[in-house]
Design brief:
With about 450 residues, this protein is an alpha+beta fold. Among the domains are: about 130 residues, no CATH class; about 140 residues, Histidine kinase-like ATPase, C-terminal domain (Heat Shock Protein 90, 2-Layer Sandwich). The protein has 11 helices and 5 strands, in the order αααααααααβαββαββ. Strand 4 and strand 5 form a beta hairpin. Helix 4 packs parallel to helix 6. The radius of gyration is 44 Å and the shape is rod-shaped. It catalyses: ATP + protein L-histidine = ADP + protein N-phospho-L-histidine. InterPro entries: DUF7134 (IPR055558), HATPase_C_sf (IPR036890), HATPase_dom (IPR003594), His_kinase_dom (IPR005467), Sensor_HK_TwoCompSys (IPR050482), Sig_transdc_His_kin_sub3_dim/P (IPR011712). It holds the Pfam family HATPase_c.
Length: about 450
């Protein structure tokens, strides 16, 4: 039984919602119900004048929402016709209250006030007209007219007040809906910006992981290939020891290559896993920092580049953002040195912790690698610049006075605005020219 009642309620609620979506349908039902009510209650009063007055007062309610002032004036015309043709109230007079309510609820403030004034004037005229039909002396006439006028004026005032309250409520709801839409747009924009920031962060991390690891892989692969060819070229027993040493060097090189590739693959899988799992915690940065600087230096040394690292000051208590940014600066600078410094180049890494800033300086004395194949547009230095500037730091990357290349980054350790002065970092050393006396040649790809 309760299930049937619930289903019936749901059906009625659904029908009501559908009906409210078509306002004219509700108004037509209201007009039809009023006409039926007038016919039933006025069965004994029916006459041409009664029917005409009822129709003129009720039918205009069909337009009470779309044209409230016009509908109210039409109802007022029916009331004037009632004063002329009849001298008594009729059931159709309830249309006056509906017209006043509709003008206050669906019309403008000006329309609302005009219809309120017309309704009060109509109350006075109706009171005088109906009191005149039972005239029994001036005193009695004035008393009856006053009571009837006040009674009808109260009804008009209540109808207007209800309509005005509904109009104000709709205005408040409309403003709230507009605010909700604006908030939804703002939220959607924030989400888009957050998604863009996340994509940029992932792109930077992916570049840092893949670019450095592939640079090591390329260098190690070239070294292993050279050692293997040297071993194959020495085919006599006299060169057996040298061949064995070359093969051992090739095996060590391949082992380093495999380790680097596996580490890069693990970091790449973790970043891609963040993209695949919408509910994962967006921690894009690999757990690396200056504490892993020695491992990074050893990996680069294993590729054949002479690297010396110096850390001055305590760097164990740096914030995660500053620690990772400093590590990435060193990593990107070493990657560029391996790719562009050329043979027999040495690299110095200097990390200095001061009370106010952390300075990272990476220099090399290479002459530049000749005839290097292009490996695409460089994004390392722009990514480095973005990473440092968001922390309020600066980056300088360019040729040294005598020869070689240097990257200098300063990272503030105190709270600072996330704005920085323009840096002089260039796009992965694009076509850098140096002063006479040596240095990298133009177009070395750094």
């Amino acid at each position: 039984m309760s299930e049937m009642v619930r289903e019936a309620r749901e059906q009625v609620a659904g029908a009501w919602r559908r009906a409210r979506a078509v306002p004219w349908l509700l108004d037509a039902a209201l007009v039809g119900a009023l006409l039926l009510f007038v016919l039933v209650t006025g069965a004994g009063l029916a006459g041409p004048g009664y029917v005409l007055v009822s129709l003129v007062q009720i039918v205009p309610l069909l337009w009470r929402r779309s044209h409230p002032l016009t509908a109210a004036l039409a109802v007022a015309g029916g009331c004037l016709l009632q004063v002329v043709l009849l001298d008594r109230p009729v059931p159709a007079n309830v249309a006056v209250l509906l017209a006043v309510y509709s003008a206050a609820g669906f019309g403008s403030r000006r329309t609302s006030r005009i219809v309120l004034g017309v309704g009060l004037v109509g109350a006075v005229l109706a009171g005088l007209d109906w009191a005149a039909s039972i005239y029994d002396g001036l005193g009695y006439f004035l008393a009856v007219a006053s009571v009837q006028t006040g009674f009808m004026a109260c009804f008009v005032g209540v109808a207007w007040a209800l309509g005005d309250v509904m109009r104000r409520r709709r205005e408040v709801v409309s403003r709230l809906q507009a605010q909700n839409r604006a908030l939804a747009r703002d939220q959607a924009q924030r989400e888009r910006l957050a998604a863009q920031d996340e994509r940029a962060t992932i792109a930077r991390e992916m570049h840092d992981v893949v670019a450095h690891s592939l640079a090591v892989v390329v260098v190690q692969a070239d070294g292993g290939l050279y050692a293997a060819r040297q071993a194959l070229a020495r085919g006599t027993d006299l060169d057996a020891d040298r061949s064995r040493a070359a093969l051992e060097q090739a095996a060590t090189t391949l082992e380093t290559l495999a380790q680097t590739a596996r580490a890069s693959l693990a970091d790449t899988r973790r970043l891609v896993g963040v993209l695949r799992d919408p509910g994962s915690d967006p921690d894009y940065a690999p757990l690396q920092g200056l504490a892993h600087l020695e491992e990074l230096v050893q990996r680069v040394r294993a590729s054949g580049v002479d690297v010396a690292a110096h850390v001055r000051g305590e760097v164990g208590d740096l914030s995660a953002d500053v620690d990772l940014a400093a590590y990435r600066v060193v990593q990107e600078a070493l990657t560029n040195a391996m790719k562009h410094a050329g043979p027999d180049a040495s690299v110095d890494v200097d990390v200095l912790r001061t009370p106010g800033v952390l300075m990272v300086r990476v220099t090399d004395d290479g002459l530049g690698a000749a005839e290097q194949p292009l490996d695409g547009e460089g994004n390392g230095l722009p990514g480095m610049r973005e990473r440092v500037e968001v922390l309020g730091g600066t980056v300088h990357a360019g040729p040294r006075r005598r020869r070689g290349w240097e990257v200098v980054a300063t990272l503030p350790l105190a709270a600072a605005p996330a704005t920085a002065t323009p840096t002089t970092a260039t796009e992965d050393r694009p076509g850098a020219a140096v002063a006479p006396g040596g240095g990298h040649t133009p177009g070395d790809g750094r």
